[in-house]
Amino acid sequence: MQSRIHGTTMPAIEFLLQPGETVIAEAGELSWMSAAIGLHTHTQAAGGGGFFGAIKRMAGGGTLFMTEYTAQGYPGEIAFATKVPGHIVPVELRGDGHDFMVHRHGFLCATAGIQLGVGFQQSLGAGIFGGNGFLLQRVSGNGTAWLELSGEVIIRDLAPGEVLRVHPGHVGAFQSCVNFQITTIPGVRNLFFGGDGIFLAELTGPGRIWLQTLPLANLAHQLQQYMPGAGNDSRGGTALGAGLIGGAIAGMFDDRS
Fold it and tell me: Which of the four pLDDT bands, split at 50, 70 and 90, describes residue 176?
């Protein structure tokens, strides 16, 4: 199996599969493929173990169904693209218990020996992290998995006992040997007036962590101001364009003052 990552801001990973070779992905991740690729969608892949195993996978942020893509008869090509600006990061697993914890939307695709499950799950109250609490997927098994991390990726290697406190949205992935827990912002004033939220993720070494600079919640928040209001209909696009043009004109006058 050969793989190659194309692009920079919105990358895609393309595989050249030999006959009989397989990659797996969550349902709906396919970008393009050649005619030699056959599809098989079911609940058994990625450690599903039947319906209840698939439910467990869903609890970690995955999907009920997984799709296997296999080259049939002769070599075939298949590709998966990222959904937001970011990077595709490969991680190697050897089935020796050195698993990876990944943010709930971080799994992109993998070889057939990879399993997905619940890594961490904690409810942090309604309205926080989209009202879904904080979830991490556990990626285990034997093979290679490719992760989708948003924004730029910062890699940190923590020494034994070294602690890094991170806004939860910036946690992309980390080795399972890293101790992980959710803590609160220290100090009453910081908690209520600091503007950094209520919770922090505390990661303690040893082990490697991957931080992402563009949490999806931050991206959604920044785009929200440009979205048509709930009461707008087809005129929403026109209002959006007028708002952007008006802002540009106002900026020109501001520069002259």
Answer: very high
Total of domains in the chain: 1
Structure confidence at residue 59 (pLDDT): 60
The residues, any chain, with a CB within 8 Å of residue 21's CB and separated by 6 or more, are: 1, 70, 71
d(CA 8, CA 195): 32
Residue numbers of the domain that contains 206: 2-228
Residue 257 forms part of a structural domain: no
Contact at 8 Å (CB) between 66 and 25? yes
In this prediction, residue 188 carries a pLDDT of: 47
**Which of the two residues, 61 and 20, has the higher pLDDT score?**
20
User: Is there a domain that residue 79 lies in?
Assistant: yes
User: Full-prediction pTM beyond 0.85?
Assistant: no
d(CA 13, CA 82): 9
